[in-house]
């Protein structure tokens, strides 16, 4: 018993006075003051860090890790490294506020922050990023009417109506001509054939055909040199106002006009509408005794024989004394180019000393243009 007490006393004394002792094994050792270890740093196996200074080496010694990356706690007392290549797992990122994203909306270099994402799920709305301020809600996306910068439409199952800027049709015939029908779908005309033209119809859709009425040409018409304009084969007459229109008047022998010597008289006349006309005629003179001379002409002046080589046309003949019977004078075509309605007259004149002279004849005018 005395030996045990002596040993305990020696231990207490050595501890109190910082004494060095050999290496026995002590249980429940309490050090009051500074313990100086002669064999240091204390190994990890002895409960130390195996490092003489506080550094990353000490932590490596404790954990036994040698990889590079992020240290992640995977459970109670369990850790693992996550490589720098793959970055931080999403599950390891700190939580952020609802409806936010990580980013930089400042317009310049800055740390990553939570960027708010504006609620934008209403009608005619779309999320839009603005440099320097982040996400904003564009509420001007038209669901009808005009949208800018639209380059294509897909997914349509019905044709766009005319009111929507479409045709109202899903198919179009090759070579067909489209005709507007107001707000209704565009109409598609039957395809024309070679030589046909599109002919309008008042109050109705035009149609292709070969019959055209009332055309006005403002420049030259140039027919094929060997074809030309085909004439009529029906023994009919050109319409009033058309090229080829023909007007005529005549007086038969039974209604001959009695003449007074040297006094011109109108045999008949024709009223010309504005245009360019060629007029010709003939007058027959019935002489009862003898006549010295006779004249025939076409003139726009009533009862006047036109002068030779003027616009009017005339013909004359002188007879030997004592000749009588019937004499006919033909009048060559003359041009009458008038800008308003004008009457042309078939005029007869005779010079005779005795007996009687009467005249009858024909006047014809054709519109040449």
Give the gist of this structure.
This protein is 6% helix and 34% strand. The protein has helices spanning 2-16, 56-63, and strands spanning 70-75, 78-82, 100-103, 113-116, 126-130, 134-138, 178-181, 184-188, 197-201, 204-209, 246-251, 257-258, 265-272, 275-287, 293-299, 313-318, 325-338, 342-351, 357-367.
Describe the structure.
With 369 residues, the chain is mostly beta strands. It has a domain at 246-367: Jelly Rolls (Sandwich). The protein contains two helices and 19 strands. Strand 5 (126-130) and strand 6 (134-138) form a beta hairpin. The longest helix is centred in the N-terminal third of the chain and has 15 residues, at 2-16. The chain is rod-shaped.
Query: Do you know the CATH topology of the domain at 246-367?
Result: Jelly Rolls
CATH architectural label of the domain at 246-367 = Sandwich
Residue-averaged pLDDT: 80
| Class derived from helix and strand content | mainly beta
CATH superfamily of the domain at 246-367: icosahedral virus
Helix count from the secondary structure assignment: 2
Q: Using the coordinates above, name the CATH class of the domain at 246-367.
A: Mainly Beta
The ordered H/E elements are HHEEEEEEEEEEEEEEEEEEE
CA radius of gyration: 63 Å
**Are there runs of 5+ residues with pLDDT below 50, and where?**
1-17
């Amino acid at each position: 018993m005395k030996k045990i007490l002596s040993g305990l006393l020696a231990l207490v004394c050595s501890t109190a006075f910082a004494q060095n002792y050999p290496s026995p094994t002590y249980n429940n050792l309490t050090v009051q003051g500074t313990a100086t270890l002669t064999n240091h740093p204390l190994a990890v196996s002895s409960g130390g860090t195996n490092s003489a200074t506080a550094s990353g080496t000490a932590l490596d010694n404790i954990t036994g890790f040698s990889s590079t990356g992020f240290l992640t706690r995977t459970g109670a007392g369990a850790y693992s490294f996550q490589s720098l290549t793959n970055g931080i797992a999403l599950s390891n990122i700190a939580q952020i506020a609802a409806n936010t994203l990580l980013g930089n909306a400042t317009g310049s270099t800055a740390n990553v922050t939570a960027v708010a994402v504006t609620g934008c799920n209403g009608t005619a709305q779309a999320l839009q990023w603005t440099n320097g301020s982040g996400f904003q809600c564009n509420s001007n996306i038209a669901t009808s009417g005009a949208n800018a910068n639209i380059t294509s439409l897909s997914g349509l199952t019905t044709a766009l109506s005319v009111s929507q800027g479409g045709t109202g049709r899903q198919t179009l015939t090759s070579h067909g001509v489209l005709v507007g029908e107001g707000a209704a779908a565009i109409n598609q005309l039957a395809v024309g054939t070679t030589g046909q033209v599109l002919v309008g119809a008042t109050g109705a859709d035009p149609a292709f055909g070969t019959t055209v009425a009332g055309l006005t040409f403002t420049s030259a018409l140039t027919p094929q040199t060997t074809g030309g304009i085909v004439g009529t084969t029906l023994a009919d007459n050109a319409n009033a106002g058309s090229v080829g229109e023909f007007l005529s008047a005549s007086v038969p022998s039974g209604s001959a006009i009695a003449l007074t010597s040297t006094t011109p008289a109108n045999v008949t006349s024709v009223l010309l509408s504005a245009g360019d006309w060629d007029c010709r005629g003939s007058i027959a003179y019935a002489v009862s005794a003898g006549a010295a001379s006779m004249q025939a002409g076409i003139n726009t002046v009533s009862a006047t024989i036109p002068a030779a080589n003027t616009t009017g046309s005339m013909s004359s003949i002188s007879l030997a004394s004592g000749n009588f019977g019937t004499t006919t004078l033909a009048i060559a075509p003359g041009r009458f180019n008038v800008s308003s309605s004008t009457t042309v007259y078939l005029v007869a004149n005779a010079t005779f000393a005795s007996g009687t002279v009467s005249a009858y004849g024909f006047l014809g005018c054709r519109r040449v243009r």
